[in-house]
Design goal:
Strand order of the largest sheet: 2-1-3-7-6-4-5
Number of helices: 13
Shape: elongated
Length: 457
């Protein structure tokens, strides 16, 4: 239902038809996030799944929800805008004919309005805009134009097909719609890592962090946690959407905001007074949502094992930029003198990547409330089979891939807890000693392109 030609059936009584334009990146994440937001808002939606096309950003859906309710999609990161559709065609003559044959008076009965013009896969020039304005004079508008503060904004949208069809002169399909809301893509700039008080080597970028927050339905009145929180880059979007958040991390220098800075070209080698997790929450006015961040080992959970959390999110270290660690020491009989016990941090050892993800799913199965969600990032070597860990009480509901080059990708896996019986065991998934370093640091063959590396990891 995107760049493909649409055959639209008449709407049932009480139903509305809406147009969504998605952002053109992270294609595999768009539909799962859209469905998660719809579930969170309690909005029933129907759409033609067979017609949904990753290569094009447009999708139509039907719902009994009014435009005022649909405005709740403003929290979606994947959506550019949502509009109520009232005209569609393969060309503008057909679109205008179809639009005027509907109950168009509902959309035209306003005091002031303006038009916005969008096109996909072709620049909307001033000349093309004027051509469309001339065509739209066939619509019996009742109000007057107000470019600054209109009562309603109309959209005229042209789709010139997928990017592979460059050079097309005429649009493949066109839409007339009434604008409702845009998504929250302005958060990408507001939460930019370049301006954040504290970042780490693997801090997640805000676009993907907010996508994950919507996948777990972050909202007021919920408690959510990240057992590998680092600098809290996944906790901040949860808090921005109203969830109370808890984090743990084994790296005490990160939790306490001390040690070597991750900022370059600042003239400082150590973290400054504003390079700490609390300063990040203060920066985005979310301090009231931060319950606490603890120094803890996820492989040996110190928190009570009750079902407390509405969601758990994580981006564990992949062993490339940052190693995964857990408490342990080869000398099991070693003793610590009493005078050093109070302020001593135990030595750590490698936490193998396969064990990390199995432990994480088991941790979530035990501590999520029924219906709670787990969402985490898991690396993938493209040349090797990929298998996700499973638990009898956890249902995998989304598996979206982000390519990181020719050799590597990572997947955002989202589960939902469907049973209170947590007695089952983890099955599937990689072996405990599995890892991805070999795909990044394998010996270079002469003449092979070496431009790829762990930049995104």
């Amino acid at each position: 239902m995107a760049c493909k030609k649409l055959g639209l059936a008449p709407l049932a009584p009480g139903m509305h038809r809406y147009l969504v334009e998605f952002a053109t990146n992270h294609e595999e994440f768009r539909l799962p996030e859209f469905q998660a937001v719809a579930e969170l808002l309690g909005i029933p939606i129907t759409f033609n799944e067979d017609g949904y096309d990753l290569k094009c950003p447009y999708m139509l859906f039907e719902s009994p929800a009014t435009p005022a309710v649909i405005a709740g999609f403003s929290r979606s990161m994947a959506i550019r805008y949502v509009a109520e559709l009232w005209g569609y065609g393969l060309d503008w003559d057909t679109c205008l004919q179809q639009g005027l044959s509907n109950d168009v008076e509902v959309h035209l009965d306003v005091n002031t309005f303006k038009f916005k013009f969008y096109s996909y896969n072709r620049k909307m020039t001033r000349k093309r805009t004027q051509t469309l304005l001339d065509k739209l004079t066939a619509i019996p508008f009742k109000g007057t134009v107000d470019l600054d503060h209109p009562d309603i904004t109309y959209l005229a949208v042209e789709d010139y097909g997928p990017r592979s069809s460059q050079g097309r002169l005429d649009p493949a399909q066109v839409f007339l719609a009434t604008y409702i809301t845009e998504g929250c893509r302005d958060f990408i700039g507001q939460f930019d890592l370049k301006t954040r008080n504290m970042i780490g080597n693997t801090s997640m970028d805000p676009e993907l962090s907010f996508l994950m927050a919507n996948m777990v339905k972050a909202r007021e009145g919920t408690l959510m946690m990240d057992p590998f929180c680092g600098t809290a880059s996944l906790l901040l979007p949860l808090a921005r959407f109203g969830a109370s958040v808890v984090g743990t991390d084994i790296a005490f220098v990160v939790v306490h905001g001390i040690g070597k800075t991750s900022r370059h070209n600042t003239g400082q080698k150590t973290r400054g007074p504003k390079e700490n997790i609390m300063a990040n929450f203060e920066q985005y006015n979310c301090t009231s949502k931060l319950v606490d961040v603890l120094v803890a080992d996820t492989s040996k959970p110190c928190l009570r094992d009750d079902a407390l959390y509405d969601a758990i999110v994580a981006d564990p270290p992949y062993g490339i930029r940052e190693p995964a660690r857990k408490i342990g020491h080869a000398d099991k009989e070693a003793t610590v003198p009493d005078e050093f016990r109070q302020n001593r941090f135990p030595r750590s050892e490698q936490y193998t990547l396969g064990a990390v993800f199995k432990d994480l799913v088991a941790f979530a199965a035990q501590r999520l409330v029924l219906g709670g969600r787990l969402s985490f990032w898991m690396p993938e070597v493209l040349a090797e089979p990929f298998e996700v860990p499973q638990h009898p009480c956890m249902r995998l509901i989304a598996n979206s891939q982000q390519p990181l080059g020719r050799k590597l990708a990572r997947r955002m896996l989202t589960y939902e807890k469907t049973s209170s019986d947590v007695s089952g065991a983890i099955s599937g998934g990689p072996q405990d000693d599995w890892g991805v370093r070999h795909a990044v640091f394998e010996p270079q063959v002469k003449g092979e392109d070496s431009s790829e590396g762990p930049a995104e990891l």
